[in-house]
Amino acid sequence: MTNEEFADNHFIRTIIEEDLKNGKYQSIITRFPPEPNGYLHIGHAKSICLNFGLAHIYGGRCNLRFDDTNPEKESDEYVRSIKEDVAWLGFQWHEEHFASDYFDMLYQFAEDLINAGKAYVDELTADEMRDYRGTLTLAGKESPYRNREVAENLDLFRRMKSGEFPDGSKTLRLKIDMASGNLNLRDPVIYRIRRVSHHRTGDKWCIYPMYDYTHALSDAIEHITHSICTLEFEAHRPLYDWVVENVAAPSRPHQYEFSRLELLYSITSKRKLNQLVTQKFVSGWDDPRMPTISGMRRRGYTPAGLRLFAKRVGVSKSENVVDMELLEGAIREDLQATAPRLMAVLKPLRVEITNFQDGEIQGKTVPFHPENAEFGERELKLSPTIYIEQDDFEEIPPKGFKRLTVGGEVRLRHSYIIKCNEVVKDENGNIIKLLCTVDFDTLGKNPEDRKVKGVIHWLPETAPQATVRLYDRLFTVERPDAVRGEDGEYRDFIEFLNPNSIEEITALIEPIAQTLPPESHWQFERLGYFVTDRYDHSANNPTFNRTVTLRDTWQKK
Ligand code: ATP
Ligand code: MG
Hints:
CATH superfamily of the largest domain: HUPs
Number of helices: 12
Largest sheet: 7 strands, mixed
Bound molecules: adenosine-5'-triphosphate, magnesium ion
CATH class of the largest domain: Alpha Beta
Strand content: 15-25%
């Protein structure tokens, strides 16, 4: 990867360059900190490219850290998938960490805070705590437990840890300021009692540290220099700073925020993606229609294409809602150069060549990629019966139709010109086949007396079959999670699922399809980019997913 592959000068790069120049840091350490409570999505891809990209550009390091503080929702399966996705995107993390590895240290820091009179054990219920918290315009009220003695706090906290109290009955809170204009500073809870097995620490703990506290200290423990997160954490930054300044943290990281990526006709919320999976609206997290990294991988998106997309969406603090076309454009651009080409016929129409003569017909050796000989070549040869695309024939052609019509001519890609003389139909009027003749003098050259404009793809009758899945947008509206009903309430995003987001067909294809490994990227001439399915593809049943069409067909609808 070159530095040019990452987002151009943006405010975080400016800050880092300044910090390096004035000697604040000798080198930088960033981290990508997912919570292992779901699979990564396109928004995470942006964050990954940003954090790993900065480490790359400035010769620093980037850690992968799992912020695993919510045991009920986390699992090893998610950890595995996240590691696979980051590596697949092309990044190598410096160190791998789990916030849960720091639970002992975090506990010790909490005792230190108690000893310094900066934390107390509270017994307000969740409802009471909400009432006491106040609002944006109204100061909060201090808890009656706020001024306990250090010794009592320490004793209670230790007994919380040793399991003497029921879930939810006590919390440890920071003693900051109940009148702060920033609600996050109104004595935030940093520990809660929760008897849930943790995917790594099992039943060792019945108290768990809260996210803000854990996140800040995990950054400090890892000597992260630039802790980059999305804008919704901006109001948490004062708490982040408070935490790292009030314990004997090993380093003093700084938090910087950028805007979240949102993709139209899609969803970037793990919770909602999880709902699609658990309610079986999709086949799994890696369904090719999902905006997850594993779904996009299965769809045929490429790491380089996704990185190009991340570069193009840029990094800033202003709204970052982008059209699917920007993503698909980046994928096309990568595949254009890297995917070899073949012919496939998705909806076959039989064509019989009535003047076929063996001796007159020659094959042609055609490279799999017009600019890259490394992909090899194969011979294409006309047979007495061939198949063309149903869409490439019209009995009553619309104006400007350049493909095959009755009495008209068309060139077969990499082959001869044929003319359609007759349409054969069944008793219901459905077209069964076309009767055509071939002009033997047109292989590799144009006839002198007339112009034949159209070129269509085709396959000989020996072409093997393949299963092909065609995908459309998963949702029918731009912002499925932001549509309000007449009552002003948000409508359920499930209502906006596109019922026609997948079509599976049996197509014809060139024989090389039977020799391909899974995840081979190909252009089907005139039809789009396709990939052999990561799981379902086999020599006996070649199976392709359409990654993206060749042009943007969506906008025209
Ligand atoms: P979700 O809301 O989907 O659960 P999250 O922010 O809770 O997402 P995390 O696992 O905490 O998910 O995210 C890991 C990192 O990825 C965080 O630094 C987060 O800021 C970043 N991130 C998450 N979603 C996006 C997004 N849509 N655009 C850019 N960065 C994102
Ligand atoms: Mg989060």
